[in-house]
Amino acid sequence: xxxxxxxxxxxxxxxxxxxxxxxxxxxxxxxxxxxxxxxxxxxxxxxxxxxxxxxxxxxxxxxxxxx
Length: 67
What we know:
Keywords: Phosphopantetheine, Phosphoprotein. This protein has two helices and no strands. The protein has 67 residues and is an all-alpha fold. It has a domain at 23-62. The termini are far apart.
């Protein structure tokens, strides 16, 4: 997130858009998540609602099938 350093804790219900998430940052975050966790986010997850807060993102990721 562009407005955070690596040591700043983020609350589960913090607004990611207020922390700097925009469409360009979203693309980078998606690429990093897919690479780091060896998964592919389905198109229907690629909406700002999925990335509203760390909690909504975690919930969406936890619903993905595991290999």
